[in-house]
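Work Package 3 (structural annotation) set out to generate three-dimensional models for the target panel prioritized at the project kickoff. During this period the team completed the workflow that converts sequence records into discrete structure tokens, so that structures can be stored uniformly alongside our sequence database. As a representative example, we reproduce one entry of 121 residues exactly as it appears in the project archive.
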Amino acid sequence: QVQLVESGGGLVQPGGSLRLSCISSGRIFNIYVMGWYRQAPGKQRELVATITSGKTPNYADSVKGRFTISRDTAKNTVYLQMNSLKPEDTAVYYCYADLQQWLTSPRNDFWGQGTQVTVSS
């Protein structure tokens, strides 16, 4: 099977920075899109940022200019550098991958378990 494991969450003061990492492992033929979503208490899960296999990024308006997504294709890993963090960035952050497990299999979405990011003084 496929596993996505996030790391790097924690507690940070407003204006601070955190870097999230997510490594994908298991039976993987090709990863098309990797990214990050987040879910705050009482709210729906929302897109934060995604990045294609060609390394084209896409960001939610709320994080543009503050967050940077990147990926290491050889390591099946995606990163999210978060700067100038605000209290409204507080949420559980989920890693996401759109991938094929075998040459002949369809593309499927896989999710990590999530990592808590709390921005508070």
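The first strand starts at residue 2 and ends at 7.
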